[in-house]
Amino acid sequence: MSASTGYTYPINVYLPPQYDANASAHLPVIFAVDGDAQFGYDNNGTRFDALRTALQQRGTAAILVGVGGTVRRNTDFLPPGSLAYHTFLTQELVPAIDARYRTDTAKRILSGLSYGGTIVFFAFAYEGAGPVTFRQFWSTETSPVNIAGQLEAAEAQLHAAAQGKTVPVTLFLAGATSAVTNGVYVDSLYQLVLSHHYTGLDVEEVMYATSHVGADLPAFNEAITRFLQ
Q1: Alpha-carbon 216 to chain mean position
Q2: Along the 229 residues of the chain, how does pLDDT read in single tens digits?
Q3: Residue 214 and residue 68: Cα distance in Å, rounded?
Q4: Residue 141 in contact with residue 117, Cβ under 8 Å?
Q5: 3 state SS of 169
Q6: FRET partner for 156 with CA separation of 20 to 30 A, picked from 22, 32, 148, 188?
Q7: Per-residue DSSP letter, 89
Q8: Would you say 11 and 46 are in contact if contact means Cβ atoms under 8 Å apart?
């Protein structure tokens, strides 16, 4: 049970073949929120299943950690609960994974879709000025629903805190451009972050002519291509 949120999160871990093949290798680790969510992927499995299959098909040497608890996404991924959830991730889950597996702490990634993308963006804002736990933030179809202006406010706090500092992370924003998607909003966040010219920050954006959930796997594969392979 998390001391920060009071909830017990189901955790799934995928270790690629390269992990056992090289007993000294430390591998990138991707923490995927909504790990137990069934969003309607082609395999009819969970988000963890879909991302694991993508890694297997590509032969990517990365550890995948599926963080369950989708039933709490309206609490954990949005303020004020997002702060406690971020504490759970950074102070409880990440240390536990690092202690058990050979992880490359310089390539620690947080990935999320929709409200999951929202908590990823909040995490970027919380950490960007330091201390940094995640080095890459992969946010797909970041949703502003029910939190009008709060992502922007968090980014403004980051901007103020980052004055004179380096922001040594990567922010990868992905959106969809079909009807009932968040692409326009995602682009507004991208432009906002760009306008602040953070020293050391790599911020990138990609858009897909697809559905809300349909953007998840293309964005995940694109992020792997850009940052892991």
Answers
A1: 11
A2: 999 999 999 999 999 999 999 989 999 999 999 999 999 887 779 999 999 999 999 999 999 999 999 999 999 999 999 999 999 999 999 999 999 999 999 999 999 999 999 999 999 999 999 999 999 999 999 999 999 999 999 999 999 999 999 999 999 999 999 989 999 999 999 999 999 999 999 999 999 999 999 999 999 999 999 999 7
A3: 20
A4: yes
A5: coil
A6: 32
A7: I
A8: no
> Which uninterrupted H or E stretch holds 124?
helix 115-127
What is the gyration radius of the CA atoms in the chain, in angstroms?
Answer: 16
Angle, vertex CA 47, rays to CA 41 and CA 50, nearest 5: 60
- The first and second tokens of residue 185, run together, are 């909003």
Q: Coil, helix or strand for 21?
A: helix
Token match 């980014």: residue? 155
48 Cβ contact partners less than 8 Å away, ≥ 6 residues apart: 12, 14, 32, 35, 36, 64, 66, 68
Taking the whole predicted model, whether its pTM rises above 0.70 is answered as yes
